[in-house]
From TrEMBL:
The keyword DNA repair does not apply. It comes from Winogradskyella pacifica. Pfam families: HTH_18. This is AraC family transcriptional regulator. InterPro entries: Homeodomain-like_sf, HTH_AraC, PchR_regulatory_protein, Tscrpt_reg_AraC-type_HTH. The keyword Transcription applies. Keywords: DNA-binding, Transcription, Transcription regulation. The lineage of its organism: Bacteria, Pseudomonadati, Bacteroidota, Flavobacteriia, Flavobacteriales.
């Protein structure tokens, strides 16, 4: 086990010091810093992006070839960290604790420490990791005009206004499959330059809001559905991912139930829990979103789009498209042409 001691005065120091210890290479483009590594220590990337008002992102997509512990010493730089684990696992503990808390796939942790406190983040060996870390420097964030932390629940409010870092706080989130989609969407952003940074920043705030909503639900005692186990929810998430990847495929509740060994009732409960939609509603939503994207990015005509996303009736497609977006497909396409 190898311990990397980090004494940051800002978030970029974390990336720089990890890179120095692991012999990685850092490249900067448009304010986005990417550490790339492929050696005996690790293989993959860690991305750091600073935004305004003390908000920044660390995004891990990496496999460590050795067991590593990051020892992060608080001192002056001591942000609130919102961590979401998209793949793999990691553990966290404060310096005053002996026992680590393990965060599994699709789970999250929010933590901050006292000024003199130490955080330990333990990464396993030979485990593919995808971890999204949003860090908020409170003194800067509280200066933002639109920051209204009084609307938060009492516990998070106290954490945000503790700009002198007098208290330590941690909260371990339950399974959150909706957040996985938002974290993945950051990885799918293909734009360059300022547009890319703006799109990522918007997603960071969406993910931050999901962290806050989950904390609020848990302190109010709202639990995961009792009708579906965590393992079953992960299976249902795989089905959701398949539908998003292949929306044109013909799906039926009967066949999904048979293929994945889950009752139709469990499938419906799982989809409603993750996406607030039934299976049929989710499939229709994904297809409509895909159709809109195809109208924006391709020269396909409406009929070609209808059949490419799995619909068999153009009139039905036009009806539900207008219900969802307020314009008929033809009106929407004309609007795009007019803007061009």
């Amino acid at each position: 086990m190898i311990e990397i001691v980090i004494n940051p005065t800002n978030t970029r120091d974390i990336l720089t010091q990890i890179s120095e210890d692991l012999n990685g290479q850092i490249e900067e483009r448009w304010g986005e810093y990417t550490m790339t590594i492929d050696n005996a220590n690790a293989k993959g990337q860690i991305i750091y992006i600073p935004f305004d008002w003390g908000v920044n992102l660390l995004d891990f997509n990496i496999t460590f070839h050795k067991e590593f512990i990051l020892r992060i010493e608080g001192e002056e730089f001591n942000p609130i960290r919102f961590m979401y684990n998209l793949q793999g696992y990691f553990s966290h503990r404060f310096g005053v604790q002996n026992k680590e808390h393990k965060t599994e796939q699709f789970q999250s942790v929010i933590f901050t420490n006292k000024s003199e406190g130490v955080n330990y983040i333990h990464f396993p060996k030979n485990e593919k990791l995808q971890i999204n870390i949003i860090q908020i420097v409170r003194k800067e964030f509280m200066k933002k005009r639109t920051t209204n932390v009084s609307s938060l629940n009492k516990k998070l409010y106290e954490v945000f206004v503790d700009t002198d870092h007098e208290n330590r706080f941690s909260h371990f989130g339950e399974l959150n499959l909706k957040m996985a989609d938002d974290v993945k969407s950051i990885h799918k952003i293909k734009s360059k330059g300022m547009l890319r940074i703006l799109k990522i920043e918007a997603k960071v705030y969406e993910i931050l809001s999901l962290h806050i909503q989950q904390h609020d639900r848990q302190i109010k005692g709202k639990k995961l559905p009792t009708s579906v186990s965590k393992k079953e929810l992960k299976t249902i998430k795989k089905i959701c991912d398949l539908i998003q990847k292949e929306p044109a495929k013909q799906y039926s509740l009967d066949q999904l139930s048979i293929d994945y060994g889950l009752s139709q009732a469990k499938l419906q409960d799982g989809f409603k829990f993750i996406y607030k939609r039934t299976v049929t509603e989710f499939i229709r939503h994904i297809r409509l979103e895909q159709s809109r994207n195809l109208m924006k990015t391709t020269d396909l005509n409406i009929s070609q789009i209808v059949y490419s996303i799995g619909f068999t009736s153009r009139s039905y497609f036009s009806k539900i498209f207008k219900e969802k977006f307020g314009l008929s497909p033809n009106e929407f396409k004309k609007q795009i042409v007019a803007k061009v």
